[in-house]
C-alpha cells in the first residue's frame, strides 16, 4: 500500500490573508502589512504616530521596525473621511514557514519537512514530535542560510496511513521551546489515478519557471500586488516582504494546493471525471495563472470537458449517502465482507443484471449496481475543441500577450504529452 502525505496546518493563520482592512493588526518584527495603493505614502496617507515602530512606502506597504504599539492614520481625499489602524509589533516568532513535501507520490521511503527560522536567533536544533507512532521524535542540527533565514530539512520515514499531530520544538539558548502544532495526514495512494490530487513536483517547477521570482512585493502587468512566484498579496494581508526562494516555493505550493488544486478536484469528482497527474497539473497551472472562475463561467471549456463521452469500463465510483456493503455472494442474504464509503473507486471484475463483481484492495465481492456510477476519462477529450478554447486565454489588460500564448501551448504539451 502506497501513501502520500498532505500537510493541513494553517499557513494563513501565521501570515494573515485578508481582502479588506481591519481596525487593528499584530505584526512580528520585520513583517509587513499591505494596505493597498489607495493608502500609500503619496495617496491619502496622513501620518504614523511613531515612525520608529513602523514605516510606509510608496506601494502602500507598512513594515514593522521596532516592538511597540502605534497607530496609522489616513484621510480619504474623496469622501473626506478619516481611518485609523492600530498596530502592535511583537518579537519575531521562532518559525517563519513550514512545509511537508513528498515529491514522489508512489514512494513512501522519505518525506521532506522544511522549516525556516530567522537567522538572528540562537536556534541550534529543530525537533519534530509526532503522536501515534513508536519512533515519534525527529531531531536535526543541519541547516543552511538563504537570504536572511535558516532552512532546516528533516526526513520522516514510512509513516503508516493515519492522521497525526506534529509539534515543532526549537533548541534555543540550550532550552527546547515548543514553537508550533501542525496537522499531517498520511493517506492511502492505491487509487491515485482517481483520488483527489495535489500538484506534482514537475507541475510546481513549471509554474515557478513561468511566473518568475521576486523576493519583494511588486505590481504585475495588470497592476496586481505580487511576491515570490506569482503569489498575490491582498489589501489587509500580513506577509514577509523579503523572502528567499525556498519560502516563495512554500508559499506557492501551499496556495496552489489549498485554493487551486482543491477547486479542480471538486470539479472533476463532482462530474465523475478521472485524469492523469499531467492532465491535472496542466489544469492547475492554467487556473493559477488565469484564475478558477472558468469552472463556473466558461461554458465552452466546461462543455468540452464534460463531453468526454467514453466511459471507463474498468472502474466505477461508489455513490451512497452512508456506506455500501460488499457481499461475499450476489445476494442480500450473503455475508458482508467490506464496507465502502462515498466516492471510493472499485475495479469492475464482472457485471450481472443487479450486481457487479468488484475488487477493492485485493478483496473480491459483490455490490448492488444502483450504487455504482460510471467514470469518464479526461484522456478522451475532443482535442481540437479543447485546445481552441484553452488557447484563447492569452490576454492581460485587454491586450494579447505572446508570453501567455506560449504558456498555454506548453500547458497543452503537459496535458496531452506529459511534456513538462
TrEMBL record:
Name any one GO molecular function.
lysozyme activity
What SUPFAM superfamilies does the annotation carry? Lysozyme-like
Reaction equations catalysed: Hydrolysis of (1->4)-beta-linkages between N-acetylmuramic acid and N-acetyl-D-glucosamine residues in a peptidoglycan and between N-acetyl-D-glucosamine residues in chitodextrins
Quote the Pfam families the UniProt record gives. Phage_lysozyme, SH3_3
Which keywords does UniProt give here? Antimicrobial, Bacteriolytic enzyme, Glycosidase, Hydrolase
The SH3b domain is annotated at 313-376
Q: InterPro entries from the entry? A: Bacteriophage_GH24, Glyco_hydro_24, Lysozyme-like_dom_sf, SH3-like_bac-type
Gene Ontology biological process terms from the UniProt entry: cell wall macromolecule catabolic process; defense response to bacterium; killing of cells of another organism; peptidoglycan catabolic process
Xref: SMART domains? SH3b (SM00287)
NAD keyword on record: no
Q: Which residues form a coiled coil?
A: none
Q: Which EC number(s) does the record attach to this protein?
A: 3.2.1.17
What domain of life?
Bacteria
Q: Which family does it belong to?
A: Belongs to the glycosyl hydrolase 24 family.
Please report the name of this protein according to its UniProt entry: Lysozyme
Amino acid at each position: 500500500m502506497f501513501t502520500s502525505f498532505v500537510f493541513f496546518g494553517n499557513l494563513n493563520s501565521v501570515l494573515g490573508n485578508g481582502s479588506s482592512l481591519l481596525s487593528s493588526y499584530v505584526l512580528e518584527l520585520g513583517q509587513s502589512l499591505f494596505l493597498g495603493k489607495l493608502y500609500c505614502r503619496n495617496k491619502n496617507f496622513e501620518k504614523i504616530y511613531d515612525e520608529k515602530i513602523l514605516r510606509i512606502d510608496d506601494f502602500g506597504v507598512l513594515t514593522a521596525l521596532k516592538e511597540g504599539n502605534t497607530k496609522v492614520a489616513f484621510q480619504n481625499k474623496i469622501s473626506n473621511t478619516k481611518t485609523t489602524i492600530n498596530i502592535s509589533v511583537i518579537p519575531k516568532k521562532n518559525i517563519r514557514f513550514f512545509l511537508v513535501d513528498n515529491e514522489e507520490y508512489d514512494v513512501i521511503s522519505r518525506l521532506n519537512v522544511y522549516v525556516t527560522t530567522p537567522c538572528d536567533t540562537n536556534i541550534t536544533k529543530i525537533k519534530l514530535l509526532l503522536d501515534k507512532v513508536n519512533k515519534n521524535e525527529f531531531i536535526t542540527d543541519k541547516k543552511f542560510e538563504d537570504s536572511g533565514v535558516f532552512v532546516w530539512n528533516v526526513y520522516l520515514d514510512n509513516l503508516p496511513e493515519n492522521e497525526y499531530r506534529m509539534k515543532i520544538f526549537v533548541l534555543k539558548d540550550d532550552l527546547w521551546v515548543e514553537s508550533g502544532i501542525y496537522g499531517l495526514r498520511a493517506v492511502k495512494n492505491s487509487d491515485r489515478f482517481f483520488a483527489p490530487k495535489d500538484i506534482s513536483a514537475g507541475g510546481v517547477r513549471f509554474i515557478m519557471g513561468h511566473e518568475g521570482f521576486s523576493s519583494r512585493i511588486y505590481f504585475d502587468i495588470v497592476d496586481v500586488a505580487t511576491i515570490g512566484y506569482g503569489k498575490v498579496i491582498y489589501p489587509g494581508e500580513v506577509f514577509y516582504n523579503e523572502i528567499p526562494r525556498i519560502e516563495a516555493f512554500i508559499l506557492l505550493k501551499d496556495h496552489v494546493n489549498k485554493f487551486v488544486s482543491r477547486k479542480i478536484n471538486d470539479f472533476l469528482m463532482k462530474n465523475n471525471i478521472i485524469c492523469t497527474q499531467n492532465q491535472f497539473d496542466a489544469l492547475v497551472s492554467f487556473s493559477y495563472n488565469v484564475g478558477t472562475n472558468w469552472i463556473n463561467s466558461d461554458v465552452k471549456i466546461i462543455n468540452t470537458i464534460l463531453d468526454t463521452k467514453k466511459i471507463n469500463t474498468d472502474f466505477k465510483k461508489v455513490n451512497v449517502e452512508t456506506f455500501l456493503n460488499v457481499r461475499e455472494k450476489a445476494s442480500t442474504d450473503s455475508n458482508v465482507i467490506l464496507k465502502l464509503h462515498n466516492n471510493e473507486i472499485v475495479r469492475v471484475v464482472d457485471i450481472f443484471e443487479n450486481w457487479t463483481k468488484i475488487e477493492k484492495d485485493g478483496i473480491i465481492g459483490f455490490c448492488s449496481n444502483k450504487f455504482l456510477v460510471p467514470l469518464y476519462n479526461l484522456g478522451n477529450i475532443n482535442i481540437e475543441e479543447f485546445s481552441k478554447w484553452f488557447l484563447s486565454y492569452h490576454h492581460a489588460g485587454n491586450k494579447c500577450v505572446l508570453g501567455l500564448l506560449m504558456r498555454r501551448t506548453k500547458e497543452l504539451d503537459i496535458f496531452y504529452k506529459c511534456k513538462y
